[in-house]
Amino acid sequence: MCMYDKLGMTGAIGSTDVTHIGWGMCPFTLGRSYTGKEGFPTIAYQVTVDHAGRAIAITSGFTGATNDKTIIRYDAGVHVIKADFQYTKRTYKLRRADGTFRERKGCYLIVDNGYHEVNSLGHPNRMREDYPLA
User: Is the pLDDT of residue 59 over 90?
Assistant: First the structure.
């Protein structure tokens, strides 16, 4: 968390997103299930990384047509961040625009806008002072 503090993202412990790996030899009968927005068959993996880009959690492969909102529901690494005491009870202070501080509780992962709004996920353009993280 220390590096994210320095970067101005206090409370973040990593970032997560789905990565699609092309499946060039996909059997014809599975083609539709594995073809998503990329337009060709892929296997999708949810990858959570720290500030240095080191993978700290990776899911099993999903069909390429499965969206991010569905895959994150089956990610054990994200579930740990939502439920484990060491992440849910951690507190940190955020500086308001007027210079005062506000205390928040609970770590979060940085995600893009393809995910549900839940306490343990921080959407970059949705983060605001009145958004409850915990």
Answer: yes
